[in-house]
Amino acid sequence: MAKYLAADIGASSGRIFEAVLNDRKIELREIFRFDDYLRYEEKTYFWDIEKIYGSIISGLKKYFNENAEDGLSIGIDTWGVDFVILDGKDRMLGKAVSYRDSRTNGMMEKVFGIMAKEKIYEKTGIQFMEFNTLFQLYALNLKNKELLEKAETFLMIPDYLNYLLTGEKINEITNASTTQMMNYKTGFWDDEIVKITGFEKIKNTKLGKAGDTVGNISSTVQRELGVKNLAVILPGTHDTASAIAAVPYSGEEGTAAYISSGTWSLMGIESGYIVNEKSYGLNFTNEASVIENKSRFLKNIMGLWLIQRVKKEYNDEFSFSEIAALAKEEKDFTSLINPNDDRFLNPENMRKAISDYCIETNQKAPENIGQFGKLIFHSLAFLYAKTLKELSELSGLTIRSLNIIGGGSQNEYLNQLTSDAAEIKVIAGPVEATVLGNVTVQAYAGGEIKSIEEGREIIKNSSGLKYYRPERDLKDLYKKFLELC
Ligand code: LFR
Q: Which ranges carry the Carbohydrate kinase FGGY N-terminal domain (predicted)?
């Protein structure tokens, strides 16, 4: 039997888990949960990093109060692309600005004026999204140069949390790859790209890979927690890398695609790097995998963010399953959107953004939550179907099944629609993929399992998976969707 701790911090909530690996099964127990750490002040969206770190400490304190366990390990993962900078005395400079902030508006074009877009893709293999770290750092240099001038250290969010726990500064590669500043061929920062940001000191910080040890908790943290030994290990610190480490492929690896479904839907395959004109044209990304030399070849799809926002705007009056039930009743409502339209990234009002889109495209605007639900879930399923076709074109693979993992895999309505729209077998689960992937890498680092593949077998064995097969013909509606994209 082996025990691990994992902190999985998403854009909307953070949780700490205990995981027990026993008899080829992993059992998870949630120890602590916290949320509400995205702030908006002085016209800036930023992360309340003190609250996040404080909550990790509170959760661990609670755990160690109840369990006098000395000598465990912990891995922390968070969303990608965001970072902090520190001065020579290791004090944070400015805010931990969120990727949903508008400081990067218009920055891509400015950067392309310095280095051609194609060249950036050729070097990094990373999809263009306005919020990538490259454009955030460029914006920082343009708008708050004085901060960058004082900065000595660059740490991605999970790496900063690791630093606070241990005093060690390491940037882990799966997450560093999301910056769009790493050269996928060398596995190191790309000199020419880094130069564009005006912050070459980024190269000062060590790089580490999933499975490496950051260090033991510092003496201050030891006192706070009341334990001497807690090893901080690098999982795939990028939550999506951890999630994908947990895809429970069922014998058809190489012919299966995945969607890591949460606030975002990350849809792709695990493969060698695919960087060519076509992948550039379709804006697919190659983020580093926890498995060396493999890429997470995927695309960001706007995901459940759309429905999360609409749900909030209805004052959380309806649960997700109520929304799905109401959506099913809306037989005659057929308006659709392209979920990846930029306007949906962080609009002031999501319902208005969706309605405006419908009106501009000569469709009826939704009038109730059921109609919003139907529009969002169908549009997502169609975009999944389209992306699946692109994935098999780009990889040359015949994709026979689709694993939907993460919190969004609980949405049975969307799972069935996805199976219908993409005409493919869907395997849903596990819900806690990110935590399971985080723990798998720790178990691998500790020698309890021999490979990530073995971890996936164990995960399959531990999770109640659900299967969906195509039931309804959605071809006509899909045609209409394609006209919008
Ligand atoms: C998912 C995720 C995505 C990344 C987005 C922003 O939580 O990490 O992979 O593109 O958030 O960081």
A: 4-244
